[in-house]
Amino acid sequence: MKAEHGTLLTGAQMVMESYLQEGVEVIFGVPGGANLPLYDVLEAGGVGISPLPEGIEAKEYPVKHYLVKHEQCAAHAADAYSRVTGKAGVCYGTSGPGATNLVTGIANAFMDSVPLVAVTGQVISPLIGRDGFQEADIQGITIPITKHNELVRDVNEIPRAMQEAFYIATTGRPGPVLVDIPRDVLQQVGKWYWKDKVQLRGYRPSLNGTDPNELAKAAELIEQSERPVIISGHGVILSNAYAEMRELAEKANIPVITTLLGISGFPGTHPLYLGMPGMHGMYWNNRAINEADLLIGVGMRFDDRVTGRLKDFAPKAKIIHLEIDPAEIGKNVRPAAALQGDVKGSLLELNQLVRRKERGPWFKWLDDMRSNHPSIVIRDTNEVLPQYVIQSVYEATQGDCYVVTGVGQHQMWAAQYFWYDKPNSFITSGGLGTMGFEVPAAMGAQVAAPNDTVWSFCGDGGFMMTLQELATIAEYDWPIKFAIINNGNLGMVRQWQELFYKNNTVATPLKNPDFVKLAEAFGILGLRAERKEDVVPVIETAMSHKGPVVCDFQVTYDENCYPMVPPGASLDETIDQPRYETAPPAVSREKVAVGR
Amino acid sequence: MSNGASRIRPHTIIALVEDRPGVLNRIASKWRQRGFNIESLAVGHSEKPGLSRMTFVVDADTNAEQVVKQLDKLIDVVDIRDVSHEDIVAREMAMIKVKADRQHRSQIIDIAEVFKAEVVDVAPDSMIIEATGEEHMIDNLVELLQDYEIIELVRTGRVAMIRGSEVSHPHDEGEEEHYERAPGVHTW
To answer: In chain A, what residues touch B76 (CB-CB under 8 Å)?
Structure first.
């Protein structure tokens, strides 16, 4: 039951009322001195202050709070929850260290354009700026990593601040918003209000900014192009433009590359799908980008990991850029046509103007490139190769699950050796590249999709950064399947040392704990695969187990991730996977054999 | 045509911003991140209640377009534009405290008059000159007054405005389009 306008509420209750208005059902957080009033209202009977002020009634709110073990994980869990549901994720931290612990998670959401509302407690108003116990200027700290933030100094500002926070986080190019509320403000009493709509002079996100001239130009470029490529990004997923993206590709007969965050925005086994480009992208994609006469960037930002050396990027191509954020247009590349607006709307209009065109020689070129370059062939060996583990999970699940990853080699392999036919099923830390994301993000994904299977591919390094959350997972019995790709070192860093620092492997070997015993210590099933023949049985046991599982896949120590564009090199300098004489056809090779 | 037009440095940026705490911090943070040095910054109330107008002059080594776009994204920035290449009137105010004993007082007053500057304070051995004009005019005045030993100099930094009846920050107060994202059904 939503409160009536004018109802007397405490500040903490107002925050809860804003969740009713916004449909928030889940919060991840950690309590502390300054945000205790927010916790008091989570259970019936509390209003954020004792004794009950006159005229205030306690109320029960249908919002579920999950207690995590570290605030960073509250932010990551809310981030992944948001990615899976499309709604804003909400996380809590107290003042000072609670708030600063959120920072990595907020920065991660900022880089990947994820709508997140972080609500932090602040020390009481009279102490602000006086080095109070557990005081940190979290508003100042998070200015560069939030879309917006606010320190609320008056209880009567809370409804407005919360309404604006959700509006700003979820509209336009989404992003995190932090609302910092001092404890005394949470305990003050004010009159509730909620506006019909938010009006902000300095913020007017527009859904349909598509200029008809630019649209016509784009359609003409597509019509004339002999060798076009679509690069589909996170924007396609964020704007729920799956069908429109697919329609453009199919209607105009254009192959599709997805960026790391664009993966699962286009069907992974679609005949027009080419995989990922860039630093660890498919060899043929990087060559195709530099051979193409037209690039259609949809909801993506031409990140340096995609483009390689910018001045040699796509030298023959004209560029059409579909993008909601005006600051991204022209930032890294100069588009010949720019469709600024929500990509779903832009695609709907563009699709009206395009028609099928046969591009036989271009597809032949791509086919030849693909059959001549292995890129994702797994060599035949009795060792446990990380790629084999990931592909075996794909075979076992047939892609019917959410895949969460950390950052590094295993993340790239999860992008390369898994075919995402479930829309929006790949949850990864792209822009910030946050190791440790894999554990809390899996929690958020599982909460968002309780009836789906969640596989989390973990690096042994990243897993060690956030594994305290196994206690949270055990407490709530979330049936997450963790696959630790355990190579005993910080693999991607070691690969850079090998390739670019004369193999001076400083500080990359890891002395890991016994992950099976560790899981058991948390009350979680632990499984280990030391030999190749253990891999599939371990996956099957994990999938048939009802609760959470930690699988320790002891893979080869020094497998490198290819293809690779060396840092600072152009896409033309992509180093492909070495050719293995013993290489069999990849298990799912036929799945990516191009058709049209 | 203003004779100062040819002297305009590349990046004069004017912005209409919300008048509330933290705005300057947000804006400064973006300039800092991109490595721009702010040469001058002038802030004051605008003609609209609750909104301030800022004039920035930033060093011009790199293209400011990207930063201006980033600044425009700030919720607190209502509008911002780079007017470096537009026809603007730009002025600055300076106060110059200069050593002035009985012998030199009249010479300094003569110099001030040439520059249409005013004497706003006279003490037994010093004077304060207030000058308003284009920066190069103030530069010249300062140079001449250096003969008499400048005790203290303070300058407001540039303020700028577009010539003619054009509004620098046209602001549409009209109805906002209703924003509704596509529902969260994920399907190809």
So the answer is: 202
Chain segment A542-587, per-residue pLDDT in tens: 999 999 999 999 999 999 999 999 999 999 999 988 876 554 444 3
What does the pLDDT look like over A138-157, one tens digit per residue? Answer: 999 999 999 999 999 999 99
pLDDT at res. A580: 63
- pLDDT at residue A582, rounded to an integer: 52
Please state, as a whole number, how many other Cβ atoms lie within 10 Å of the Cβ of residue A166.
Answer: 23
Residue A205 is predicted with a pLDDT of: 85
C-beta atoms of A327 and B17 within 8 A: no
The torsion angle over the Cα atoms of residues A259, A261, A265 and A271, rounded to 10 degrees, is 40
Q: How far apart are CA A178 and CA B147, in angstroms?
A: 55
Which chain A positions have a beta carbon within 8 Å of B185's beta carbon?
240
Range A519-526 contact pairs with CB under 8 angstroms and sequence separation of 24 or more: A519/A470, A519/A549, A519/A550, A522/A470, A522/A471, A522/A473, A522/A474, A523/A474, A524/A470, A524/A473, A524/A474, A524/A548, A524/A549, A524/A550, A525/A549, A525/A550, A526/A550, A526/A551, A526/A552
Give chain A's domain count.
Answer: 3
Amino acid letter, A65: H
Choose among B25, B182, B185: nearest Cβ to A143.
B25
Beta strands in A159-288 (DSSP E): 176-182, 189-191, 228-232, 256-258, 273-275
Q: Which one has a higher pLDDT value, A231 or A1?
A: A231
CATH of the domain at A479: 3.40.50.970
pLDDT tens figures, A339-394: 999 999 999 999 999 999 999 999 999 999 998 887 888 888 999 999 999 999 99
Residue of B nearest to A248 (CA): B188
Q: Which of A553, A528, A264 is nearest to A388 (CA)?
A: A553
A138 and A260 in a single domain? The answer is no
Binary contact (B77, A168; C-beta < 8 A): no
Q: Does A420 touch chain B (CB under 8 A)?
A: no
Closest by CA to A529, choosing from A414, A418, A386, is A386
Best of B16, B29, B186, B187 to disrupt the A interface (most A CBs within 10 Å) is B186
The partner residue sitting opposite A206, judged by closest CB among B22, B177, B184, is B177
Average pLDDT over residues B96-106: 94
Query: Residue length, chain B?
Result: 188
Query: Is B182's CB within 8 Å of A240's CB?
Result: yes
A148 has a chain B CB within 8 A of its CB = yes
* A326/B171 CB distance under 8 A: no
Q: Give the position of tokens 């109805």.
A: B175
- Tell me which residue range forms the domain holding B137: 89-159
pLDDT tens profile A459-483: 999 999 999 999 999 999 999 999 9
Q: Is residue B54 part of a domain?
A: yes
Task: For this complex, say whether ipTM is above 0.95.
Answer: no
**Virtual torsion, Cα A46, A52, A58, A61, nearest 10 deg:** -40
What are the chain B neighbours of A170 within 8 Å (beta carbons)?
181
Q: How many domains does chain B have?
A: 2
Contact B179 A423 (CB under 8 A): no
Q: Per-residue pLDDT for A188 more than 80?
A: yes
Answer yes or no: are the C-beta atoms of B160 and B89 closer than 8 Å. yes
Contact A240 B26 (CB under 8 A): no
Does B18 reach chain A within 8 Å, measured CB to CB?
A: yes
Query: Cβ of B66 and A197 within 8 Å?
Result: no
Same-domain status, B77 and B98: no
Same domain, A541 and A393: yes
B75 near A CB under 8 A? yes
Interface list for A 234-273 with B (CB within 8 A):
239-243, 246, 266-267
